[in-house]
Design a protein that fits this description.
The structure is a single chain. By secondary structure, this protein is of the alpha/beta class. It folds into 4 domains: 183 residues, Rossmann fold, CATH 3.40.50.300; 67 residues, Helicase, Ruva Protein, domain 3, CATH 1.10.8.60; 90 residues, Zinc Finger, Delta Prime, domain 3, CATH 1.20.272.10; 73 residues, Orthogonal Bundle (post-AAA+ oligomerization domain-like), CATH 1.10.3710. It contains 21 helices and 7 strands. The protein is elongated, with a radius of gyration of 32 Å.
């Protein structure tokens, strides 16, 4: 992928390329082609944080993202000037979304405009589109980069539709959230949606090694021990920008010209957990958590639990999922599982975090290691399907309410056998409607307590359905 970006730095393309609305009706003066940092190609090395200085200036400098930048791939064709599609770049921080947007404009001579969804409104969007329309008359197409596009409201996104469809602007939207959840369908249908992946460890290492020697970076002013470099790679979590920020901090704090492991540990306390409680990471991690418990992998389940808790996930949400799981995937194979999950939810309410992390771990270990059965889920699902299919016959007369005056004259409750009056408290009589007699919904497994429940259910059915 790319080495890194810094959206908030004043030297970034997002700010440097933005035009004043005051020039809306003035012709654009000819401008030199700008590099990925917004400075003219061939100009002095830009100033600013290491992550900004090391932003790739050409496709040859981009590290990673081989799938979407392979020869002939749509994004590569766009950057090389042989395509004209709008693009939604979707991926975690530090994977090069801003850099690729800049390259898309600078490598083809297109005009670059940038807006941030955090500060721009419909008025700003329409102003940029109007400028782009005037610029198009002279043959110059505009690349409109919108950072955090998922934060645009539906109205703001709708304001882009006509300009994108008519190619007044070439939209490049960047988002850390799954666009299927956050970008309106009409805009998605007019754009290529390309997913960027976190950098591989070897790719992060390449980014760091380049920054250590490159004149735009540290220019060989420091050396970095292998174990320190390994730690920087590990803590980056696939985020190129973060890796460079940590490298710069460690280099600044080094006592000599050599960065050692202790320098990295002083500069960086903990790895940042990539997790957005409002985005798809929220759904992906909780999904992995549930599936790990279902698969009885207690260690993986604890990993995902820790990941959610470290990222600040609402512990009540985790507790609710545990209670659902206890019935959905364990059921009567271990009746204590639901009690453990319900108790964990109560503890979360009473004591809160961080102490409740132990209780959530307690419940997770119990549920992950418990015998599994989806017989409860299957049983209620089958019964519900029959009801929805119209199999709702009359309640047998002997089961109907016989407490009101005149009920007996209608035959209600007549012939009902009170189970406690017969040996074993199981009376032979019909309970379901006529068209469901003999239908089995609950099928116990041979796991956990259901190994004992299964034979009992079979015996009960034989007694209940025995022909007189």
């Amino acid at each position: 992928m790319t080495s890194a970006t810094n959206r908030n730095d004043p030297t970034s393309a997002a700010d440097g390329a933005e035009e004043s609305v005051d020039t809306l009706f003035e012709p654009d003066p000819p401008a030199p082609v700008a590099n990925a940092l917004g400075a003219p190609v061939g100009s002095e090395v830009p100033q600013g944080p290491l992550a900004v200085r090391m932003r790739p200036r050409s496709l040859d400098e981009v590290v990673g993202q081989r799938r979407i930048l392979a020869p002939g791939a749509p994004l590569r064709r766009l950057i090389e000037g042989s395509g004209a599609s709008s693009v939604i770049l979707y991926g975690p921080p530090g994977t090069g979304k801003t850099t690729l947007a800049s390259l898309l404009s600078t490598s083809t001579g297109r005009h670059f405009e940038a807006l941030s969804a955090l500060s721009a409104g419909v008025k700003e969007v329409r102003a940029v589109i109007e400028q782009a329309r005037r610029r198009l008359i002279t043959g110059t197409q505009t690349v409109l980069f919108i950072d955090e596009v998922h934060r645009f409201s539906k109205t703001q996104q709708d304001a882009l539709l006509a300009a994108v469809e008519n190619q007044v602007v070439l939209l490049v939207g960047a988002t850390t959230e799954n666009p299927s959840f956050s970008v309106v369908s009409p805009l998605l249908s007019r754009s290529l949606v390309l997913a960027l992946e976190p950098l591989e460890p070897a790719e992060v290492r390449e980014v760091l090694e380049r920054a250590i020697t490159d004149p735009r970076g540290l220019d060989g002013s420091v050396t970095v021990d292998d174990d320190a470099l390994d730690q920087l790679v590990r803590l980056a979590g696939g985020d190129a920008r973060r890796s460079l920020t940590m490298l710069e901090a460690a280099a600044d704090g080094a006592q000599s010209g050599n960065v050692v492991l202790a320098d990295v540990e002083r500069a960086v306390a903990d790895a940042v957990v990539r997790y957005d409680r409002d985005g798809d990471q929220h759904y992906d991690v909780i999904s992995a958590f549930i599936k790990s418990m279902r698969g009885s992998d207690v260690d993986a389940a604890l990993h995902y639990l820790a990941r959610m808790m470290e990222a600040g996930e609402d512990p009540r949400f985790i507790a609710r999922r545990l209670m659902i799981f206890a019935s959905e995937d364990i059921g009567l194979a271990d009746p204590m599982a639901l009690q453990t999950a319900a108790a964990a939810a109560q503890v979360v309410q009473l004591i809160g975090m961080p102490e409740a992390r132990l209780t959530l771990a307690h419940a997770t270990i119990h549920l992950a290691t418990a015998p599994k059965s989806n017989a409860v889920t299957t049983a209620i699902g089958a019964a519900t399907s029959d009801v929805r299919a119209g199999k709702t016959g009359l309640v047998p007369p002997h089961l109907r309410d016989g407490h009101y005056t005149g009920a007996r004259k209608l035959g209600h409750a007549v012939g009902y056998i009170y189970p406690h009056n017969v040996p074993g408290a199981v009376a032979q009589q019909q309970y379901p409607p006529d068209d469901l007699v003999g239908v089995d919904y609950y099928e116990p497994t041979d796991r956990g307590l259901e190994r004992e429940i299964g034979p009992r259910v079979g015996k009960l059915r034989r007694i209940l359905r025995r022909k007189s």
